[in-house]
Amino acid sequence: MVGVVGIAFPKFRLVSTLGAYQDLAKDGLWETTMTTKRMGLSGKPETAAEMAARFDDLHPPYNEMMAMTESNRCLYCYDAPCTTACPTSIDIPAFIRKISTGNPNGAAKTILEENILGGTCARVCPTETLCEQACVCNELEGGPVPIGRLQRYAVDHFMEADKPHPFGRKPSSGKTVAVVGAGPAGLACAHRLAMLGHDAVVFEAKAKAGGLNEYGLAAYKMTNDFAQKEVDFLLEIGGITIQYEQRLGDNLLLADLSRDYDAVFIGIGLGDVNDLGLEGEDKDGIHSAIDFIEEIRQAPDKRDVAVGDNVIVIGGGNTAIDAAVQAKRLGAGEVTLVYRRGAEQMGATDFEQDLAKLNDVIVRYWSMPSGIKGNGKVESMVFEKAELDGGKLMGTGETYEVKADMVLKAVGQKLLPSGLDGIELNRGKLVLDEKFQTTMGGVFAGGDAVASGEDLTVQAVEDGKQAAHAIDQYLSGM
Ligand code: SF4
């Protein structure tokens, strides 16, 4: 089977995608892998076509034969553990069976009725730690059923078929809900509200909808303007309008929304980034990884994006990997990703960590940033080696220096509290009751901005969907 579709074992998936795989011996503190020669990432590409090739689809889509072959491996488990592991509870065996019987459009409808952003989630979900980790086929030769790629096959098939929107709307309730933020939570909430017969007006701070799907994910994960195509598809249901460049606490006030609409949903995500807390952090060349990723996503020709020769990325999550890999693909000479703990503790999945190494990123573990050098512009950073002492991370006193003309910070994001006066926060996130309502009556929330939320696109979609049902109940009692 590996010879036919090249995807059976998890490790072999990287072979099929990237053309090479090498077991990456871990030697504790330091880890350097792959040569630029092997991945062909030396220097900046000269032509637009060469650069575009570096940002091509990370997981090329399945064709019909691949989808049929892989879908036929599913055992259609009763009480399927993959469905239990999916935050949006997609009936995975049902959609896979529809693919295997030649009904990909039916499969897409099964997916989309639980997750209207199933196309993006199929591309960016850490499936290896969610549905595919739970798949019983992990115990069998061939490994887990590639649920994410099958999901993408079905949803892409439906969207490319140019069929009518798969969901209708209940009769109009006459109610209108203000949705703040056109990211995954806000869009999912607005779509479900529309299905339930309500209208939604979405207020988005930026010039485009999609949130992280449009601005915050590596370009090779979201090719061909998919985020905007998905927004267009979602809006086909009707009853949803989007107003752009409307920022909460700036030209948009919660008090006005509460007064003018029947309910409010806040899905603003985390709009601010954490600092390193070091002196000299304002030097030229030091940027947020989120801003860097956004610039790449919005650049029609990636050659226009400035990248350093010696880039340091600080952090251990998928954002850090997205920034590091893209810096290398843009043509940086050396990219060093520095994380204060070990590989096991990284927020980035094993797949993402391997991807960084396959793209010639040098990974340095157990290292805490302790100084920034440079006169006006960053020239190097100093790191202190770290270790666990009684479970607590401590510096060892031993330091080393890494040359840098660009530093990308990916040490977490936080809520911008602007415009949220009157709503209780806990540890910088919105507090909700069990019905997704904040401490302000009639104001609901979901996604990364809430206290219990996991920072996953799929969780944001589920929050938005569930909050829409809670708002529906709230409106029916008005
Ligand atoms: S756990 Fe695996 S084999 Fe079972 S239904 Fe889910 S995808 Fe199919």
UniProtKB/TrEMBL annotation:
Q: Which InterPro entries match?
A: DPD_II, FAD/NAD-bd_sf, FAD/NAD-binding_dom, Helical_ferredxn
> What EC number(s) does its UniProt record assign?
1.3.1.1
Which ranges carry the Dihydroprymidine dehydrogenase domain?
53-161
Broad enzyme group: oxidoreductase
Report the Gene3D superfamilies cross-referenced here.
Alpha-helical ferredoxin, FAD/NAD(P)-binding domain
Domain of life, per the record?
Bacteria
**What is the reaction catalyzed?**
5,6-dihydrothymine + NAD(+) = thymine + NADH + H(+); 5,6-dihydrouracil + NAD(+) = uracil + NADH + H(+)
The record's keywords, sorted A to Z, are: Oxidoreductase
As one GO molecular function, the record gives: iron-sulfur cluster binding
Describe the location of the FAD/NAD(P)-binding domain by residue ranges.
176-464
According to its UniProt entry, the function of this protein is described as: Involved in pyrimidine base degradation. Catalyzes physiologically the reduction of uracil to 5,6-dihydrouracil (DHU) by using NADH as a specific cosubstrate. It also catalyzes the reverse reaction and the reduction of thymine to 5,6-dihydrothymine (DHT).
Quaternary structure and partners:
Heterotetramer of 2 PreA and 2 PreT subunits.
Spell out the protein name for this chain: dihydrouracil dehydrogenase (NAD(+))
Native source species: Aestuariispira insulae
